[in-house]
Amino acid sequence: MSLTLPSLGTENQSPYQVESRREILALLKGFRDKSQLISLMINNGNEAFITSVLDIDDSNNTVIIDSAPGNEANQRIVEASSVFFDGLLDRISIQFSSSKLQRTQFEGRPALQMPVPTSVIRLQRRENYRINTPVSTPVKCLIPIETELGKQNQLFSLVDISCGGIAILDDRNLVNLAIGTSYELCQIDVPGIGVIDLSLQIRNSQELTLLNGKTTRRIGCAFLNLSNRTLTAVQRYIMKLERERNAKMTGI
Description:
Elements: E1 13-18, H1 21-33, E2 38-42, E3 47-51, E4 53-57, E5 62-66, H2 71-79, E6 83-89, E7 92-98, E8 102-106, E9 109-115, E10 120-125, E11 131-132, E12 140-147, E13 150-161, E14 165-169, E15 182-190, E16 194-209, E17 215-224, H3 228-250
Antiparallel strand pairs: 1-10, 2-3, 2-6, 4-5, 5-9, 6-7, 7-10, 8-9, 11-13, 12-13, 12-15, 13-14, 14-17, 15-16, 16-17
């Protein structure tokens, strides 16, 4: 089975199809054990929700995931001809699909059930990998946005960062989503590094519905004409995040 999913990253990627059931189960258990969030997409990626793997029943060949907020959203999911999933596990994007989701219960609350996928796509990094930025203390990106009153600086929370670009959340629908739109004089205030000056270009966008029912837009941006000095600063920040992540995993 060949999967074609929306590209959410900003860096070069090389797909690798996994068909080993043992490896697929290991990946799903990785999402469950690490409580990693997954994007659930229907209508060819035009509608998306945030979910997570709650349980895996190998003997019954089922995976239980968190339900979407609201009965209408869940009904659209179970009626969808295809449901696509994209999640980040150990810096690698894992993508798969299903067409047989059903409503169920898990530990007394609504959930969704699907068969264990027979095929999974791993997007291997050729150059850059993206790393999630802290959720508890969001890093802010300043982007000058054209308004009726002229350009005004607006702040957006980073989702992830790589040496090729960033992803931001646009809760107020301020960013022009036209692919190729460029924004000059942007800044990222990086903890422990300082303010980084750069230019951004819009590469992709996705509507998301969070677990609390709130909607937002995830926008992938590529860096434009990054100077060596700025690239070094970005690399320093990625290394800093990696050290903090490894320290947390090892309990140091």
